[in-house]
């Protein structure tokens, strides 16, 4: 039975039970990944993941169950389990399917499916070659944590008893390389990766090998800093984590639980006036694109911050009802969240900062979304006279997200598009840097 037929059979069964409503999610992911280390194959893994989940609603009570078995007996047993759980649940007036008017009856093809016709044998050769190039880059590179190639293809379906049936075929391919360097008994490791829906959009193994090697070499002989307050640049891949914290703070779950420092902040100026934060869910072949959210609601281009002002939260149907608002079509997160940049390069941003810290690595999870307090381990480079002076390690950077957001001076155009949040490097006017 095809996945299509399987979902239709399950829907038919659910409708025969005279429930108030029900919804089904099905996903099937196939592919493989290989890792090579020191010129030899370390792992070859074939992936096959299947998931069928159902949620039923009856008299404001809901029950959910899931299975990885796609047999008809298992599907029926999963439905019965969900119904049984619902019969023991407490009523919740906010639960239920999305508003029928918001469902994506007609949705665009975001071109998310581009299979990579690479064989495991070819992938192994590619991984070995990538690692070899990285090790050969500099004699100070003395070891490797390996290079890996992966390719995955998924088929996802969401359907409900409001006659919504949406499906997406999605592919994801990646190349990763990590090496170790040594100088004067001082060792460092770093890595680089590329990820894309379309294999044609992947960076070359030459590029990944060189980037992994360069990043590792640059970290050698890192020092600690004296504790001080100074400007900080979050390099693009790290800047995304700041925006991720912002998304958490304006997400429905944290808002209705009153555990966000941006509670009741709609209409307030949170960022500098020249800043906009918005999503573009239908960019072709982008990592964060989706024609509909996890409830079947149509995804739309929308602003969350306009000219520094918070104009929208990030809501699914349940959290929207709890807050007395409408869903923003963000069940499951944001889709290609982007931020306006000031059209300067990272080098120009460093010159603009003149003196301060460039953060290229973050450690730990010291972010309190309820208070906005921010404190994380970091590594990077010390900047003086607009130029990199030396690598830095074993420091902690701290502040409060509200003042960090308000203190954004500029955003570079080196946009990292490897994920659902896209950002360039961000310069913040001041943070506490704790070292010696």
Features:
436 residues, alpha+beta, PmbA/TldD fold, 2 domains, 6-stranded antiparallel sheet, 5-stranded mixed β-barrel, 9 helices, 23% helix, 37% strand, globular
Shape: globular
The secondary structure category is alpha+beta
CATH homologous superfamily heading of the largest domain: PmbA/TldD superfamily
- Tell me about the largest β-sheet: 6 strands, antiparallel
What is the CATH C-level name of the largest domain?
A: Alpha Beta
CA-CA gap between termini: 64 Å
Low-confidence runs: none
Total beta-strand segments: 16
Helices and strands in order:
Blueprint: H1 3-16, E1 21-37, E2 40-58, E3 61-67, H2 72-87, H3 120-136, E4 141-160, E5 164-183, E6 186-196, H4 205-218, E7 228-234, H5 236-249, H6 252-256, E8 277-279, E9 302-306, E10 309-310, H7 317-322, E11 337-339, H8 346-353, E12 356-363, E13 373-384, E14 387-400, H9 401-406, E15 408-411, E16 426-434
Parallel strand pairs: 7-12
Antiparallel strand pairs: 1-2, 1-4, 2-3, 4-5, 5-6, 7-16, 8-9, 8-11, 9-10, 12-13, 13-14, 14-16, 15-16
